[in-house]
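User: For my dataset I need records formatted as: sequence, then structure tokens, nothing else. Please produce one.
Assistant:
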Amino acid sequence: MPQLFSRAADTWFRMILAVLVIGTGVSVGIALAVARSPYLTGQNRVPAQPVPFSHQHHVSDIGIDCRYCHRAVETSASAGLPTTQICMNCHRQVFADSEMLAPVRASYRRRIPIVWNRVHDLPDYVYFNHAIHVHKGIGCYSCHGAVGEMPLIRQDAPLTMKWCLDCHRDPQRHVRPKKFVYSPQPLESLIDTDQTSLTHLRSALVSEYQIQSKVDCYTCHR
């Protein structure tokens, strides 16, 4: 019976098989990299807003507490957005004639809320509760970053499932004394101590606040 394949056929088969395997691995790697890239996660995204509100000015320069505007953060899943009335508490007198604040004055006169564009926009199938996080000593800084340094607010974290799980698996890295929960700075800059003492403090806080490492699906997907 004549030979069906040449002597080189086996070599070609091995080469093609290797290319297919390597190509598949590279394709999967590229797909995962793109899926976790800022292009798709929105990390560092700065959405346009109807009014260019500066957290840097209001938080760092003036020293306004997060809870003055985000009043529901301690009691509900959503932190809440400030009403126009809250804005006008100051801006009846401060920059009262500023052209930049014309939409705020118009909203107040017409009693029509300003429609802000969401910055940290989780998918509908993800459940996140602000209240439980702040009551367990997880600071605003852990998710929102150094907002006091942001002239325009941006999405500081990738908000991927992996990013959430990294914190849930090791909450000690993010817990802080409750008096510092609303401080827009890393804990290291708020407490003058060495890293070892800081680690011991965080470990003690995890125990004191009864923080559990919740990683079951139901925690976030209800």
